[in-house]
UniProtKB/TrEMBL annotation:
Keywords: Amino-acid transport, Cell membrane, Membrane, Transmembrane, Transmembrane helix, Transport
UniProt-listed Pfam families: Branch_AA_trans
GO biological process: isoleucine transport; L-leucine transport
Gene Ontology CC terms, in alphabetical order: plasma membrane
Name of this protein: Branched-chain amino acid transport system II carrier protein
Membrane topology field: Multi-pass membrane protein
Keyword Membrane: yes
Membrane-spanning segments: 7-26, 38-59, 71-94, 114-132, 144-168, 188-207, 219-245, 273-295, 307-324, 330-352, 364-386, 406-426
Similarity comment text for this entry: Belongs to the branched chain amino acid transporter family.
Length: 434
């Protein structure tokens, strides 16, 4: 293996590890469990929003080679700062506490009769200690966690695929594909791509290889697609596994209980305990990373103030304790309204940054993002039970019944703003796109 190939694989694995959040593992099995013979449609929707869009986010980073701020700065500097603040606020309020809840349900609740609040307090006290001390212990542990979890999951998936009769149940979803897309929102992977892509850029620059912009762009793109393939195989395999084992569990089983149950049925008690411990450790490293990243961002915005860093860390851990005392299902339900608003904006920013600069001018960014925000409002209101307040308006918006009413308006806005360029597109312009 030559140096370039090795660097590509190392970068790909780093990307895979950053996306491969332990909390995400609880989502695919239940999707498959409830999708029946239409598991492939659910998997397609899930992988669209949880794999393809995040990888496109990495490709966008390969072009920008900047930070999350650069994703939205074409809309306006003020909007970009607000967007960054909202993303970090959501991160410490929802996915970070969810890691504590997943840890409780997988690694504490099966063995000890303790309340969620006990785990949540202890968990985020430890998170705070690590955030304030920036220990490298978690970085070292993290290098072994992802490979270990991946090996256990591949073993679990492989045993299921080779030992099942491939008998599927009925689906409970009215719209399997769109349900898969919306469940993919809960991975937070598109947001993760916007946030952590900059980390990868910094890491590559610190290694000082490869040397120029184009070489780094090719490296990140190749690594991104490799990481995406890995995510696709794991997510798809877990969805199929859940679908094949639909007769083994009660219909109302929770996400975490289903993952633990599948592991116990296929691998036995010892392996299930091992997986639970690995998931708990991986959740902890994720929480530390989220709180640290948020504190670093606030510190930077306040002239590298150590006080700002400490206050943000405290707020992040307090929010973690408050939200982490609830079960995973509740946190996922609470997260939905926030995701229905911020995820469409994130997807649009990713897609616009992937496109050639000709089709992503500042005016295009402004109009398309504004349109997306406007047409996301009915979906947001519907997610908090106020959809009826929109009257008949929602029924006139295409795809609103699937909670994706922003898609066609944003596409139309994109075409209309670019129409003059499309009409004048000549051979010279074609060369610019290559």
């Amino acid at each position: 293996m030559n140096g370039r190939t090795k660097t590509t694989w190392v970068t790909a694995f780093a990307l895979f590890s950053l996306f491969f959040g332990a909390g995400n593992l609880i989502l695919p099995p239940q999707l498959g469990f409830k999708s029946g013979e239409l598991w492939w449609m659910v998997a397609g929707g899930f992988c669209l929003s949880a794999v393809l869009i995040p990888i496109l986010g990495i490709l966008a980073h390969s072009r920008l080679q900047g930070t999350m701020y650069n994703f939205a700065e074409k809309v306006s500097p003020v909007f970009s700062v607000i967007y960054c603040f909202i993303v970090y606020a959501i991160s410490i309020s929802l996915p970070s506490p969810r890691t504590a809840s997943v840890t409780h349900e997988m690694a504490v609740q099966p063995f000890f009769e303790l309340p969620y609040i006990f785990t949540s307090v202890l968990y985020f006290v430890m998170v705070f200690i690590f955030v304030m001390n920036r220990s490298k212990i978690l970085d070292i542990i993290g290098k072994f966690l992802t490979p270990a979890i991946l090996l256990v999951l591949l073993l679990l998936i492989g045993i299921t695929l080779f030992s099942s009769d491939y008998i599927f149940g009925d689906t409970v979803f009215e719209s399997p594909f769109s349900h898969g897309i919306l469940e993919g929102y809960q991975t937070f992977d598109a947001i993760g791509a916007v946030v952590v892509g900059g980390v990868i850029i910094v890491s590559i620059n610190l290694r000082k290889e490869p040397g120029n912009y184009e070489a780094k762009k090719r490296l990140i793109a190749r690594a991104g697609w490799l990481a995406g393939l890995g995510l696709f195989l794991v997510y798809g395999g877990l969805i199929l596994t859940g679908a094949l084992l639909h007769q083994e569990f009660d219909e109302d089983i929770s996400r975490t209980a289903l993952l633990s149950g599948i592991s116990e049925v296929q691998l036995g008690n010892t392996a299930n305990l091992f997986l639970s411990i690995l998931v708990a450790l991986a959740c902890f490293t994720t929480a530390v990373g989220i709180v640290t990243g948020t504190a670093d961002f606030i510190k930077y915005r306040f002239a590298n103030s150590r006080t700002a860093y400490t206050v943000t860390a405290v707020i992040g851990c307090v929010l973690g304790i408050l939200m982490g005392q609830f079960n995973v299902g509740y946190i996922i339900a609470v997260a939905l309204p926030a995701l229905m608003f911020i995820y469409p904006i994130t997807i649009v920013l990713i897609l616009l940054n992937v496109l050639p600069a000709r089709w992503g001018t500042p005016m295009v960014f402004k109009v398309v993002v504004a349109t997306t925000v406007l047409f996301s409002i009915p979906d947001f209101l519907g997610s908090i039970g106020l959809g009826s307040q929109m009257g008949q308006l929602k029924f006139w918006i295409p795809l609103s019944e699937f909670s994706m009413g922003w898609v066609l308006p944003a596409a139309v806005a994109f075409v209309l703003v670019n129409l003059p360029g499309i009409l004048n597109w000549g051979p010279r312009d074609s060369e610019d796109l290559s």
